[in-house]
Write a structure and sequence with these properties.
The protein is built from nine helices and no strands. With 211 residues, it is mostly helical. The chain folds into two domains: 1-57, Homeodomain-like (Arc Repressor Mutant, subunit A, Orthogonal Bundle), CATH 1.10.10.60; 61-208, Orthogonal Bundle (Tetracycline Repressor, domain 2), CATH 1.10.357.
Length: 211
Amino acid sequence: MHFVRGLDVKFRRMKDSRRGQIMAAARRVFAEKGIAVGIADIARAADISVGGFYLYFQNKEDLLRQLLDETGREVRAALATAFAAPGEPLARFERAGHAFFREICGRRRDALILLLRESVGFSAEVEELRKRLFQQLTDDVADAIRRVSGRNGRRGKRQAQVAALSIFGMLERVAYHYFIWETGSKDRRKVEEEALAFVRDGLGSVLLAGG
């Protein structure tokens, strides 16, 4: 019985590893060649057969949905971890901003391209998933603003929501311009610092505003 359970655990780990291998390859291919690539291209990049692909995913849309789910979890976790560290409120928000630029825009640029560019308009279901992901991220930031400001009335909630949407809108355009299009300044650290200075000033005005 223990032997059978051991084999089952080993099989699940191998399956998870192979699924992760396919997803990592797909992110690279989508970032380099665009979402229009075929399953054969993804399978080739993952060093598996086309038939092997279908052991893990129903089709390309199923793969894309799982990739977006994974990306959403990674972005939310990176921001939450950075924000959770002790410190003054503005310093914690700034750390979360650095995590966005360094962990997502920098080390996970392929995931950023998938989220902001390649998945747009793929299907109604994928667009709904993107909408839900951005809403979760906005809600995370709005909740953090309310917690540190101590204002949970109607006005405080509205201010936090508007501030969160403004922050994400600005960061999205900066990421798109400098990290996806790679247009303008090549000094990414300077871009990061200037963008976060803007966020810090805006958040400061919200946190200090009367409730």
